[in-house]
Each structure stands twice: as structure tokens, then as C-alpha cells.
Write a structure and sequence with these properties.
The complex is a heterodimer of chains A (115) and B (111). Chain A contains 1 helix and 11 strands, in the order βββββββββαββ. The longest helix of chain A is centred in the C-terminal third of the chain and has 4 residues. Chain B is an all-beta fold and 111 residues long. In chain B, the strands form 2 sheets. In chain B, strands 2, 4, 5, 9, 10 and 11 form a 6-stranded mixed β-sheet that branches. The termini of chain B are far apart. Classes of the chains: A mainly beta (115), B mainly beta (111). Chains A and B meet through strand 5 and strand 10 of A and strand 5 of B.
Amino acid sequence: DSGVTQTPKHLITATGQRVTLRCSPRSGDLSVYWYQQSLDQGLQFLIQYYNGEERAKGNILERFSAQQFPDLHSELNLSSLELGDSALYFCASSAGDRIQDYGYTFGSGTRLTVV
Amino acid sequence: GENVEQHPSTLSVQEGDSAVIKCTYSDSASNYFPWYKQELGKRPQLIIDIRSNVGEKKDQRIAVTLNKTAKHFSLHITETQPEDSAVYFCAASRSNYQLIWGAGTKLIIKP
């Protein structure tokens, strides 16, 4: 167990629907990162939050949004879902700003299937 | 923006042989270079990292080398075993909180 908790583990939904993925970082970690990994693809960085504030944005679609709450858990909201949104969504956390010092730990991911 | 290129995309080696995966980065200010291993259907896990003030780092059968002048770094796995089969990702960071990822290398260990 990495200490980063993602729920749900699996999600099947229909096109056009909206889903929310949840991530609880390791105890004490302030940064949360969201990644999308499509089948046999690399890791696409979506967005990062640090202590409740958005810190960096990657290739995140306008249909997607995220937030980090005061208790530091984060939610990734995906709306108007399309078949191409089917992927493994990973959350990672880090203690602070310094990846070099604290590392970067991934959760087990949420597998989203859009049908 | 910063870019990390990773080669090869697929590498097949005989069990017991060595495997080498190479990454090239574009931002000369990058100073941290981790390698992650992702087994099928599982989360990426850090296996080794190196900082820009070090040229080489070893941990048992794995090692990473860094050439700052050429802006490339490599992962070396010796005496490969079946459990080494996975996708390996390199990454580079110049800031403290952002990693730029390579596209991944699928390593296949043939028995």
C-alpha cells in the first residue's frame, strides 16, 4: 500500500455522463497530481494542487476539472464523457514542493470505462 | 517547454542479459531524474533516481548514469530476470514540483 488512496478502483459509465474520482494523499503530503494513462500510452499530466491551490496545469480538457479540499483530499471531475476518455487515472502525492527530497508516490489508479 | 525523449519504445532481451534504456532532455536546467517501473495494470513505482551533481548511481542490479553535457541519462539493468518485465518511464525536473515524463519503454525478458 503506497498510502495514496484512490476511489473508486473501477468505474463504468455511459457517454455524456459525469463522474468524480477521489484521491486521498499520503498523510502529511501537501501536493496532489492527476494523470491520465490511456491503453498502452504514457503518463499524461493533467493538473497539480499544492495545499489547496492550483499549482500547474497540463493537458487537461475543459470538460475536466479538479480541486483540493482543506483536508487535502482531491477530486477530479470528468463531464460530458466520451469513449476516448476511457483510461486509467492516477493520483500521485508529494510532501511539498521538493520532489527531489520527498519523492512522488502514485495511488493504484481508477480505471474508467466509458461505454 | 521541456521535453523528454525515451528510447527504445520496446526492448526485448534474453534473461540474464543486460538492458539499457536511454532518455534525452531538452532543458539544461533540469536537475533531478527519476526512473519509474510500471507492471501491467499497476501503479508506477520509483526504482532509482539521480541528481545533477552525481554522474552515476547504483542499486543492486540497476544503475543510472547522467551525462549533463549531452543532456541524456540512461537506466542499466544487469542480469535481467522475468520480474523485470514492465514498462519503464524516465522523467526530468527543473522545478521542485513538476516532472516531465518520457513516453515509456516496454521491457520484455525472454526466457
